[in-house]
Design goal:
Arc Repressor Mutant, subunit A; homodimer; six-stranded antiparallel β-sheet; 6 strands; 192 residues; Thiol Ester Dehydrase, Chain A; alpha+beta; DNA binding (chains A, B); 2 domains; 29% helix
């Protein structure tokens, strides 16, 4: 069923509001039109391109929010964060992140994105990872954008904070991890 | 009990043969003498300094042995490797590996060393991590040397190879991980 231009533009606006880091390529596929059409639609609707949208979100200046580490030590770009609640970051997989042979993203980069997000979400000046269980659900390739979502699940009986991180490429989950985080109230534990 | 010089030199030679990546500082502490004494002992015994010992081991040219990835994609330096059996690598923790605030090594670097060693030890041109459980046992600081030891434990019922990695600073375990590795015989699994 072909949408009218007006219908498509309305849907497009809604889609970008809901999933602001969607690319023009993904939008074109979603709406069954050319990338050029999406670009024209965005111009008519005065919606900036993805790179500008990300920049303006990042300008929210998360450094004033994040406590556990300087913002430039987070792997990936923080897009949303509420301390001790949830956080989102994105990481564009470039050549430096993949095995040279098969262009598959190396596990430790997906781990680093998730782990540093788990550190950043903690409302404490000292946050360290004690333990982690992770799964790589499918291969991620060069050029893909990984969106990591961290959710704080609460504290366990040892006073460690449990953070769950799920990472997606478009709507497909590619990584999941459970992180047990120390915070400074049990800092002594780490020096045993 | 004070050893004679001859006794000490004999012990020193044995110690270096058993644990070839021990530093002069560690040797001095172990034998209760000054670093200068250790250096003189080494000169008399014609034992090269640590950096040279590592270089000569690395010259064993592990690239001809490792199958799953180019040797320069291994994080850390491979010191010993027997495919599908065991492997050892060392990683010197520098400024680029630590949190700027507290000089504690970031978890993803210890993970990267262990994970890439788990990949390297697999006797297959395609090896990917499916799942991992890890624990950070104690903080690692800038300037410390991490020795990671990977042991292949065999295959599970899904045909994945289990690799256990334990990482040490001197004789203290700082990291432990269990990695479930895909190999190309179940490569289709990854494309589901």
């Amino acid at each position: 069923m072909k949408r009218t231009k007006q219908e498509r533009q309305q849907k497009l606006q809604e889609t970008i509001e809901e999933t602001p880091f969607i690319t023009d390529e993904e939008l074109a596929r979603k709406f069954g039109v050319s990338i050029q059409t999406i670009r024209l639609d965005r111009m008519e609707l005065s919606i900036p391109e993805l790179r500008e949208r990300i920049k303006s979100m990042a300008k929210n200046n998360w450094q004033e929010t994040v406590r556990a580490l300087p913002i430039d030590e987070v792997i990936g770009e923080i897009i949303d964060l509420e301390l001790d609640q949830r956080a989102i970051s994105i990481l564009d997989i470039g050549r430096e992140h993949v095995f040279s042979r098969n262009k598959i993203a190396r596990g430790h980069h997906l781990f680093a994105q998730a782990n540093s997000l788990a550190v950043a979400v903690i409302d404490d000046e000292l946050a360290l990872t004690a333990k982690s269980e992770i799964r790589f659900k499918r291969q991620v390739k060069e050029g893909e954008r990984v969106v990591a979502k961290a959710t704080v699940k609460g504290n366990d009986d040892k006073g460690r904070t449990i953070v769950e991180v799920n990472s997606f490429v478009e709507h497909e989950r590619v990584f999941t991890g459970r992180f047990e985080m120390y915070r400074s109230n049990d800092q002594k534990e780490m020096h045993k």
